[in-house]
């Protein structure tokens, strides 16, 4: 592959990307610390209903409506897992965050067509829940 | 439309994305206010929350540093517009492979990609390949160290395999929904004049 931009330009571009993602990331970490300090982990776990039924669906809905750098979703999902949120829920949240874009839907419809954008997002939403259950099943066997 | 026009459109799209409201800072300010409220109501809990916050930030710093370096390298070596050379009409199996790899190595906000993909669609890129590319964006190589840091190597590896498999299945689903004809296996790309 040819070198498209210089290292300096790439560095500046990455600083800009981080500049956009960092405030949200720091805020999410702040919120996670606050919630886990005030509310006991068991309460958070119960609130998210986890693997018992609709946990992955809730995770996928939250991931779909959330917007922001994927970095934030990894950190948030990691912290949720540390307080006991189930694997399928975590995976559905992670995958839907990056593959489903409710906030970006108008832009996607305008660029790639309404039918395409809606069909694609619905398929991705369902896929994120499927991956959630598949991951829980696979890791249950492997680990 | 030539490559220069496309460059201008992508840059304009990126600029539009960057010039929006500073939601991140507003969210940060909101959380800051929550801490102040807690400090006034329960100073001890606020202290504990702040201590936990600092621990969390320090814990993720090494992984974030690696992500930063990888992002710089990706910006230097990966050119999204190179994709346009390989996903034209009748690109066959090669088109699917290129769409998959392009999605995996693509970084940055999605909005410039919409512009590029709309242009590629005009040039004959099929909806199924667009779907594959957009779904495989869920694999983020520069962020893999952070994912391993949080979830471990086995979790990360298995998830990446499933995402790639589901990206292909998504493409197949879109292919049938849009009743696309078989693209064949020959590789007659719409190669622009170099």
Largest sheet of chain A: none
List the secondary-structure elements of chain A in sequence, H or E.
HHHHHHH
List the secondary-structure elements of chain B in sequence, H or E. HHHHHHHH
Helix content of chain B: over 70%
What percent strand of chain B?
under 5%
Distance between the termini of chain B: 14 Å
Specify the structural class of chain B: mainly alpha
Mean pLDDT of chain A: 81
Quaternary state of this entry equals heterodimer
Structural summary, described in words:
The complex is a heterodimer of chains A (143) and B (194). Chain A has 143 residues and is mostly helical. Chain A contains 7 helices and no strands. In chain A, helix 3 packs across helix 7 and helix 4 (70-82) packs antiparallel against helix 5. Chain A is globular and about 45 Å long. The model of chain A has no long low-confidence stretch (mean pLDDT 81). With 194 residues, chain B is an all-alpha fold. Helices cover 72% and strands 0% of the residues of chain B. Chain B has 8 helices and no strands. The longest helix of chain B has 35 residues, at 43-77. Chain B is elongated, with a radius of gyration of 21 Å. Chain B starts with a helix and ends in a 17-residue tail after the last helix. In chain B, 38% of the residues are buried. Mean pLDDT of chain B is 78; it is low at 184-194. The interface between A and B is large, with 67 and 69 residues.
């Amino acid at each position: 592959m040819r070198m498209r931009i210089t290292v300096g330009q790439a560095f500046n571009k990455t600083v800009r990307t981080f500049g956009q993602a960092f405030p949200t990331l720091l805020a999410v970490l702040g919120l996670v610390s606050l919630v886990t300090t005030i509310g006991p982990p068991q309460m958070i776990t119960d609130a998210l209903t986890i693997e018992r039924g609709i946990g992955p669906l809730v995770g996928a809905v939250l991931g779909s409506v959330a917007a922001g750098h994927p970095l934030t979703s990894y950190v948030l999902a990691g912290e949720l897992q540390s307080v006991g949120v189930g694997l399928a829920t975590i995976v559905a949240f992670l995958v839907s965050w990056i593959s489903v874009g409710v906030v970006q839907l108008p832009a996607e419809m305008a660029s790639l067509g309404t039918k395409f954008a809606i069909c694609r997002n619905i398929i991705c939403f369902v896929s994120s829940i499927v991956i959630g259950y598949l991951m829980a099943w696979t890791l249950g066997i492997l680990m | 439309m030539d490559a220069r026009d496309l460059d201008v459109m992508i840059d304009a799209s990126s600029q539009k994305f960057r010039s929006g409201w500073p939601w991140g800072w507003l969210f940060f300010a909101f959380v800051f206010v929550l801490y102040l409220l807690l400090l006034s109501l329960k100073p001890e809990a606020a202290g504990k929350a702040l201590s936990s916050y600092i621990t969390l930030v320090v814990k993720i710093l090494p992984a974030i540093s690696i992500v930063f370096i990888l992002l710089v390298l990706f910006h230097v070596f990966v050119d999204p517009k190179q994709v346009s050379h390989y996903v034209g009409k009748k690109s066959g199996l090669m088109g699917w492979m290129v769409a998959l790899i392009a999605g995996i190595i693509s970084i940055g906000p999605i909005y410039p990609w919409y512009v590029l993909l709309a242009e590629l669609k005009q040039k004959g890129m099929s909806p199924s390949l667009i779907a594959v590319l957009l779904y495989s964006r869920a694999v983020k190589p520069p962020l893999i160290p952070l994912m391993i840091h949080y979830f471990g190597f086995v979790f990360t590896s298995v998830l990446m395999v499933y995402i790639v498999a589901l990206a292909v299945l998504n493409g197949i689903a879109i292919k049938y929904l849009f009743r696309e004809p078989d693209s064949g296996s020959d590789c007659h790309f719409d190669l622009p004049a170099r």
